[in-house]
Amino acid sequence: MILREKPGTAELLFALRGSVLPHIAPQLALVGVLAVAAMLWDHNVMPLPHLSATPFAVFGVALSLFLGFRNNAAYDRWWEARKLWGGLLADSRSLAREADLFLDDTEIRMQLLRSMRDFLHLHRSALRGLPLPAGEGPDVKLDAMNRLLAEARHNGRLDGFGARTLSARLSGIALAQAGCERIRATPLPYVYSLLVFRTSWLYCLLLPLALVEPAGWLTPVFALIVAYTFFGLAEVTEELAHPFGNTANALPLDAICRLAEIGLAPHLGEAAPPPLQPVNFRLD
């Protein structure tokens, strides 16, 4: 995630960190070259067909509406993922307080909280597609936490009300985990990406034919502005649609896990680690 405090005009105009410009630069270069070629051919070789701007205006409005709808759908996925991880952070802190309240056995309490910390890191790694230790995984860790509570209840070290409270907490954690896995396993329909890709390219490649007569030598400039808008929105959507990825605009799962470690540390009798800080405005 990119974190900038009150960026100025110059930063907004020229910042590359967190911008989609480096990702769409090849597309922009191709559109610019073709626009220049069309302009030079029309002026120096033979006139090209000069298309009316009216169809492009109608087509552009329709494409903009579709891109906006797709961008809203991608942002909904990103924001839901952020709320789910915010819930996991709150659950980890509440679990620590509830464990202090209901579990008198220090060894069991420490084991439960360490398992919670491990679960968050395993869950983060699984969502990002990172390799997990053999025989380990977020589900395995949650099952181990549940067995720990069951054994404590069976041995009389946890009363019924405490068992019910802690079990409900684990259920909430499992529900948030399932929500994250649903987002990761169910991308936006592929047909959306296919339609946006084809229509954006078709529009940007044909646009110089409508601009070459009224815009003249400014045809490449206007063509690049339009291409930046459409290709940029498409790229932003792709990044937001995958909130657990490693892009600059993905969720800072490492930083969220570190916040959970900070919250659990006092209950584990450990020194709290420092929070992660952005590096070149990027927080992972």
TrEMBL record:
Keyword Transmembrane helix assigned: yes
**Mode of membrane association:** Multi-pass membrane protein
The record, for Pfam families, names: Bestrophin_2 (PF25539)
Source taxon at top rank: Bacteria
Where does this protein chiefly localize?
Answer: membrane
InterPro entries xref list = YneE/VCCN1/2-like (IPR044669)
Instruction: Indicate the secretion signal residues.
Output: none
Presence of the UniProt keyword Acyltransferase in the record? no
Its subcellular locations are: Cell membrane
Family the UniProt entry places it in: Belongs to the anion channel-forming bestrophin (TC 1.A.46) family.
- Quote the protein name from its UniProt record: Bestrophin
Organism expressing this protein natively: Gemmobacter nanjingensis
Upper lineage is: Bacteria, Pseudomonadati, Pseudomonadota, Alphaproteobacteria, Rhodobacterales
